[in-house]
Design brief:
Elements: E1 2-6, H1 11-16, H2 21-30, E2 35-39, H3 48-61, E3 64-69, H4 79-99, E4 103-106, H5 117-138, E5 141-145, H6 154-164, E6 169-174, H7 181-188, E7 192-197, E8 200-202, E9 208-210, H8 213-222, E10 228-231, H9 239-254
Parallel strand pairs: 1-2, 1-10, 2-3, 3-4, 4-5, 5-6, 6-7, 7-10
Antiparallel strand pairs: 8-9
Helix pairs in contact: 2-3, 4-5, 5-6, 6-7
Length: about 260
């Protein structure tokens, strides 16, 4: 297994303008990482020239572009907004082709007030399958993150994966988003095509605990996972001091 980081780990300096995308790439390379997930939110532009520029920056830094990520909502009821998010996801699949990203992380969404969860999930499944089929055409795997709402539990994720039933669709297993990781990691791991690694998770009572990465490694090894462990740093401590320590911990566990 290899180590990467999402650009989202540096969201605060990226949003404030204290860090550029180029500087973020260099920072990840200086940490001794193998790859980088390029989160769509932080791209100041997406024309071909800029995408090529970022791709070259990653190459020169020695980082694989292991994926991109979008902030879609496939559970929303507004048909026009839903179609907009499907088209946005397809557009970022195309951007991923240019960037050399083999995978795109997507979300499910939350059940709108007053709606039936089963109906919402079927709506989301249709959108996910459409994106997976487009991903197949373009050579980009679509990875659904366990991220609350209709993806809150391993049971939700299993239902969605079975519903989409597409060879170019899998799971982005976020180790910090399940409330019962000792029960849920193993249920989701067989469908994982990529991962996110947070420092902590919240239990059923809302209490924070460190993620057990020794357990996570065993679970992923048991299913033969060979992909990326991609850091998504979200702690209060700034990433310039928190990230090096977390990277060192994951290197100890996964290398």
């Amino acid at each position: 297994m290899r180590l990467a980081s999402c650009t989202y780990s540096y969201r605060q300096p990226l949003k404030s303008g204290d860090m550029s995308m180029e500087e973020c790439i260099t920072t990840c390379a200086d940490l001794g990482l193998d790859g980088i997930e390029l989160t769509s939110y932080f791209f100041p532009q997406t024309d071909r020239e800029y995408l090529n520029h970022i791709k070259r920056c990653c190459f020169e830094a020695g980082l694989d572009v292991c994926g991109t990520a979008v902030g879609n909502d496939f559970a929303q009821a507004d048909e026009a907004k839903l179609r907009k998010d499907v088209e946005m996801t397809k557009e970022w699949i195309d951007h991923g082709v240019v960037l050399g990203a083999p995978c795109i992380r997507i979300f499910g969404g939350r059940v709108p007030e007053g709606e039936d969860e089963d109906e919402v999930m079927q709506r989301a499944i249709a959108c996910m399958r459409e994106c997976a089929e487009y991903g197949k055409e373009r050579g980009v795997v679509v990875a659904l993150e366990n991220h609350g709402g209709i993806t809150a539990t391993a049971a939700h994720m299993e239902r969605l994966v079975k519903g989409v039933d597409h060879e170019w669709f899998g799971v982005n297993l976020d180790f910090g988003n399940y409330r019962e990781p000792d029960k849920e990691f193993a249920k989701t791991a067989p469908d994982a095509v990529t991962t996110h690694a947070k420092v902590t998770y919240r239990d059923l009572d809302g209490e924070r605990h460190p993620v057990d990465y020794e357990m996570a490694r065993r679970v992923m090894q048991d299913v033969g996972y060979r992909g990326y462990i991609s850091i998504e740093y979200e702690e209060e401590e700034p990433p310039d001091t928190g990230m090096p320590r977390f990277v060192a911990e994951l290197k100890r566990v996964f290398r």
